[in-house]
Write a structure and sequence with these properties.
This protein has nine helices and ten strands. It is globular. The protein is of the alpha+beta class. A hairpin with a 2-residue loop joins strand 1 and strand 2. The chain has helices spanning 43-56, 91-96, 118-128, 143-157, 161-170, 212-215, 221-229, 243-249, 306-320, and strands at residues 3-10, 13-24, 29-30, 37-38, 179-180, 217-219, 264-265, 271-277, 280-286, 291-297. Helices cover 28% and strands 16% of the residues. The strands form two sheets. The chain has a seven-stranded antiparallel beta sheet, sandwiched between helices.
Length: 326
C-alpha cells in the first residue's frame, strides 16, 4: 500500500488524524492528511442524503416513479416499454438497489461506453439492458441506479448534481474543498494522490467524472468523517436530516437486511459504506458508540478483501485507546 490516511472522531470531535506512506511513489511525495482521494462508492451516502433533503423539503417522495408517464424524469430517456418493468421503478428502489437489474457485475453499464455522457448512457442502458426481475423483489448492488439518482436531483433542483450537493450538504458540514474527480492523470486535482492498481484495471482509464453520484467524489478522510458525524444521529453536531428521516434512511429492506438506503447497516446500529475502484480502497464508518472514522488508500491491491482489512484496522484503533472509552 503506497499510502494510508485515517481520521477518527468521537462525539463529533476530531480525535486522531494521520497519514502514512506516500502520495506519489514516483516522486516520493509524503502523504499528508490534506491529500485527497477518490472515495468511490462512499459517494452513495452523499447522494442518498441529497435525496432525503429533497424529501424533507416536500419536493420528492420515496414512492415516486422515476421513468415513464407522470414520473420524475418523464420521457427524458426514451426506451421501448414493451414487456418492461422500468415504469415501476421508484426512488426507494434506486436507493435500496432493488430495481430488478443493472448490478455491478462484469456488465455494469457505468464501466462501459466511457465516451458517452449521462444522457447517452442512461438511454443506452434502458434500451439494451432490460430488467431481469420486477422492481422490489431482489437486491443487486447498482452503480447505475445511483447514477440515475444524480439525474433526479438535477431534474428537481435545476442545478448540477455536484453544485446541489456542495450548496445543500457539504457547505452545511463546513466542507468546502470536495469536488468530482477528473478522469486522467493530467486531470488530477491539487493535493490529490496518485493511484496504483496492481490488482488490474487502469486508474486513469475510466470515466470517473461520469460516476459523480455513485462514485465520483474526491475527499480527505477528515472531510468524510465530518460528513458522517453530520448524519450520525447522536446530537453531537447539527444533523443534516431529522431523526425520523434517519430512521428511514438506515432501515434495511427484506431483500437485503444489511443494506438500507445508501448505507450498509447491522443489528448493532452501525452504519458504513466502502468504496473500491482501480487504484482506490476506502471506508467510512459510523458506530453506535459515538465514533465516526474513515480510512483511505491509493491502491487496490491483489489482496482482494482490502475493505474488510480497513474495517478491522479501524475497529482495532478505536478500541485501543483507553482515553476514548470513559
Amino acid at each position: 500500500v503506497p499510502g494510508l490516511s485515517v481520521a477518527i472522531a468521537i462525539k463529533g470531535k476530531p480525535a486522531y488524524v494521520e497519514a502514512f506512506g506516500v502520495a506519489d511513489r514516483d516522486t516520493g511525495e509524503a502523504l499528508t492528511p490534506q491529500h485527497r482521494f477518490r472515495i468511490a462508492s462512499i459517494s452513495k451516502p452523499i447522494t442518498s442524503t441529497g435525496i432525503f433533503t429533497l424529501i424533507e423539503a416536500g419536493k420528492l417522495k420515496l414512492d415516486k416513479h422515476v421513468f415513464g408517464s407522470n414520473s420524475i424524469l418523464g420521457d427524458d430517456y426514451p426506451w421501448s416499454a414493451d414487456g418492461s418493468n422500468i415504469e415501476q421503478i421508484t426512488i426507494e428502489h434506486l436507493l435500496t438497489h432493488t430495481t430488478g437489474g443493472w448490478g455491478n457485475a462484469a456488465n455494469d453499464p457505468m464501466f462501459s461506453n466511457k465516451e458517452m455522457n449521462h444522457r447517452e448512457l442512461i438511454t443506452w442502458t434502458l434500451k439494451q439492458m432490460p430488467l431481469t426481475v420486477p422492481p422490489g423483489k431482489s437486491f443487486a448492488y447498482s452503480n447505475f441506479g445511483y447514477c440515475v439518482l444524480g439525474r433526479v436531483i438535477e431534474k428537481i433542483t435545476g442545478q448540477t448534481y455536484e453544485q446541489y450537493i456542495k450548496d445543500n450538504i457539504l457547505k452545511r458540514c463546513g466542507i468546502i474543498d470536495m469536488r468530482i474527480a477528473g478522469n486522467t492523470l493530467m486531470d488530477r486535482a491539487i493535493n490529490e494522490v496518485k493511484y496504483y492498481s496492481p490488482a488490474g484495471g487502469d486508474p486513469y482509464g475510466m470515466n470517473v467524472a461520469r460516476m459523480d453520484s455513485h462514485g465520483g467524489w474526491i475527499a480527505t478522510p477528515s472531510e468524510m468523517t465530518t460528513f458522517f458525524t453530520h448524519i450520525d444521529g447522536f446530537k453531537d453536531t447539527d444533523q443534516l436530516l431529522t431523526d425520523d428521516t434517519l430512521r428511514i434512511m438506515s432501515t434495511p429492506t427484506a431483500a437485503n437486511p444489511r443494506y438500507a438506503k445508501g448505507l450498509f447497516v447491522n443489528s448493532a446500529n452501525n452504519w458504513w459504506h466502502g468504496g473500491s475502484l482501480p487504484g482506490t480502497e476506502t471506508l467510512s464508518v459510523r458506530t453506535h458508540s459515538d465514533f465516526c472514522w474513515s480510512a483511505f488508500t491509493n491502491t487496490r491491491p491483489k489482496f482482494r478483501d482490502m475493505t474488510a482489512a480497513l474495517d478491522q484496522l479501524g475497529w482495532h484503533m478505536v478500541g485501543s485507546v483507553a482515553d476514548w472509552h470513559p
